[in-house]
Design goal:
The protein is an alpha+beta fold. The protein has helices at residues 17-20, 30-36, 45-48, 63-78, 111-115, 127-140, 155-165, 189-200, 211-224, 262-269, 317-326, 350-358, 373-381; strands spanning 4-5, 9-12, 82-84, 90-97, 100-110, 119-120, 142-143, 147-151, 171-174, 180-186, 205-209, 234-241, 247-248, 250-254, 273-278, 289-294, 297-303, 341-345, 364-368, 392-393, 403-405. The strands form four sheets. Strands 1, 4, 5, 6, 8, 9, 10, 11 and 12 form a nine-stranded mixed beta sheet that branches. Strands 15-17-16-19-14-18 form a six-stranded antiparallel beta sheet, with helices on both faces.
């Protein structure tokens, strides 16, 4: 069994692709999805968030949602909006967000290699979210949300992807958020063989985003008990070179100061951090540096270097702030469950931190230097997991551009 292989993708006919492609299922709530899909009968949101076609009080996990999703998928097939390639091929998928460009390979990846940790993880999964993806896959007999993977950049692989992407794309659409999605079919047998062999020679590839989707695919494969080479023994993925991927900061806001007066709070922080007042919002410039917004004032915090351990998880900025400030001073031991803390993706900007503190909803906000891909891979290589909300990948893959049918 190869690490990755080509597949017969289910995809929109090129002239209808713009009507189909949609944001990933997990970045919109039901109300947002319903609004985004208005007047768009072929939007993939009718499949990935099918509760939008049911009464507004419908539980997104209700069996009727999965049934509706299957019905809506069949409708797109019946109307010729979606087609399935006759040949097993790879696809080249380029994302463009402003000046940022990344070019990757859409393929199916081995469940066996996921189970053996050759496809490496860095997050825990939640059973309810896994169950949801299992039900979705089984209802559709297809995987419709690609897992975002990374490989350590290799010139031979990168060159093939760049060569294909230098030609006219089959699909080239700009989504509502301004992100460009360009898509090519790679059906050259020699290039397919070269890419399959190149990936099979790699020690590992890495999950960037999509831990629940990959875990669900593993569960479905076990249930189906395939030969190891069946479609259900592979899961839909798009794989990018690590040095082209973009991780944004994932910031924190906290409701209160845990009973501290402001001056005492700052005095306690100064035991482990150098603190300076700043005239503008603080975008940290390097690891070990943080911005803090408190009572209308920005501060720059730099952790004392002797407090940075030689450990792939404990040395992450999210761990350093948790271990030296958020837990001991603010009293938040479990960021996964404590309702006093919330998380703000860097895509929303530092103005969102100011807004939530200035409104009185939150007492203090912290901005971070983005986690690097090298740090993520080091954690995964050590078979460890990252703290919650450590990475925010942008741009996001679209749903509906290509799906993987399991029969």
């Amino acid at each position: 069994m190869p690490l990755i292989r080509p597949f017969r993708g289910l995809r929109p006919v090129p002239e209808r692709a713009e009507e189909v492609v949609a944001p990933p299922y997990d970045v919109l709530n039901s109300a947002e999805a319903r609004e985004r899909a208005k007047g768009k009968p072929f939007s993939f949101l009718h499949i990935s968030k099918a509760e939008i076609d049911l009464p507004e009080d419908t539980d997104p996990y209700d069996p009727a949602v999965y049934a509706k999703s299957a019905e809506n998928l069949q409708k797109l097939l019946d109307e010729g909006i979606l087609l399935r390639d006759d040949k097993e091929v790879y696809y080249v998928y380029r994302l463009t967000m402003g000046e940022h460009v990344q070019t990757g390979l859409a393929a199916v990846a081995s469940v066996k290699d996921y189970d053996s940790n050759r496809i490496r993880k860095h997050e825990f999964t939640r059973p309810a979210k896994e169950d949801d993806r299992v039900r979705q896959i089984e209802a559709l007999n297809a995987q419709t949300g690609p897992v975002l993977l990374a490989y350590r950049s290799q010139p031979d692989v990168d060159a093939i992807l760049a060569e294909v992407a230098a030609t006219e794309p089959l699909v080239n659409v700009t989504a509502d958020d301004g992100v460009g999605h360009a898509f090519w079919v790679l059906d050259d047998d020699d290039k397919i063989a070269t890419l399959t062999a190149a990936f099979d020679a790699m020690d590992a590839i890495y999950i960037a985003d999509g831990h629940h989707r990959s875990a669900a695919a593993s569960r479905v494969a076990k249930t189906r008990g395939g030969s190891g080479e069946d479609n259900s023994d592979y899961f839909l993925s798009v794989i990018y070179p690590h040095n082209q991927m973009q991780i944004l900061d994932y910031n924190r806001v906290v409701k209160d100061l845990n009973g501290w007066l402001e001056d005492d709070f700052l005095t306690n922080i100064a035991v482990k951090f150098a603190i300076s007042r700043e005239d503008a919002a603080v975008h940290p410039e390097r690891p070990g540096e943080f911005g803090m917004y408190l009572n209308g004032q920005w501060y720059r915090l730099r952790i004392n270097s002797e407090l940075i351990p030689d450990d792939p998880v404990a040395s992450l900025d999210v761990s350093l702030l948790a271990d030296n400030l958020i837990e001991p001073i603010l009293g938040i031991a479990d960021q996964r469950t404590d309702e006093r803390i919330d998380f703000v993706g860097g895509i929303r900007g530092l103005g969102e931190l100011e807004k939530r503190v200035n409104s009185g909803e939150m007492a203090v906000a912290f901005s971070f230097y983005p986690t690097s891909m090298e740090a993520l891979m080091a954690v995964a290589d050590a078979n460890e997991v990252m703290p919650p909300k450590s990475t925010w990948f942008e741009p996001k893959l679209a749903d509906g551009l290509v799906s993987h049918v399991l029969d």
